[in-house]
Amino acid sequence: LMRPLQGCRGRGVVMGTVTLCLAAGWALQTPGGISLVVPQPNINATVAQNILLSVEYSCRGVATIEWKHVSSWGTTSIVEWRSGNYVNISTVYKDRVTAFENGSIQLRNVGMRDAGYYFVTVTEEHGTNAYGTIIVNVYEIIYEDLHFVAVLFAFLAAVSAILICFMWLCNKSLHLFQKKTTHKLTASTTEEIELETTEC
Question: Are residues 122 and 155 in the same domain?
Fold first, then answer.
């Protein structure tokens, strides 16, 4: 299970137990150095999302884990810690990174600048190293929000309804105007015919 690291707090009995477990594990483990597994080497994320850079390592001794980010803006050290001893998070990532005992890190509220390559190095106390890489792609959401689409659709429907009503009123007014003009013409024509008949 993944548990966040707590830094230098909570030593004493826990530290002694961890040391005994690590010593027992080192004594029982067969030679082979460090093993490092990266289950998801490619991550696609959207802006403001939280992502987990997941790894799993095992080694005979106490390991030091270091994460770096490489992009077109340069190389940045994210976090470094030694299992059971210390956690050193870069000031740039201070409020955005959580480190876990299994070597994984969580990066919160990603932005476009967080895209790039993430390199993890696990170093055993005897100097053996293991390396892993995760590629992170970050995408911006441009007008894909369903709320925006729904509001836009409702606005267009309202504008269409208003235009249809306006056209109907114009048509009605024109029809009434034509009817009155026709009635006046008919009345004046009838009067002219009557006058001509009387004169004859």
Answer: no
Give the single-character DSSP code of 3: -
The confidence score (pLDDT) of residue 147 equals 67
Q: Which pTM was predicted?
A: 0.59
Q: How far apart are CA 7 and CA 99, in angstroms?
A: 10
Give backbone dihedrals phi and psi of 14, rounded to 5 degrees, phi first: -60, -40
Q: In this structure, what token pair is assigned to residue 51?
A: 């992502």
For 135-154, write each residue's pLDDT tens digit: 999 999 876 556 667 777 78
Q: Please check whether residue 3 lies inside any domain of the structure.
A: no
Domains of the chain: total: 2
Please check whether residue 41 is in contact with residue 51, taking contact to mean a CB–CB distance below 8 angstroms. no
Tens of pLDDT along 63-76?
A: 999 999 999 989 99
The pair of structure tokens assigned to 50 is 């939280």
- Assess whether 58 and 149 both reside in one domain: no
Distance, CA of 78 to CA of 67 (rounded, Å): 6
Confidence of residue 199 (pLDDT cuts 50, 70, 90): low
Residue 62 has φ and ψ, to the nearest 5°, of -85, 130
- Kindly report the average pLDDT of the chain as a whole number: 80
Give the N- to C-terminal CA distance of the chain in Å, as an integer.
117
Q: What is the DSSP letter of 150?
A: H
Domain that holds residue 165: 142-178
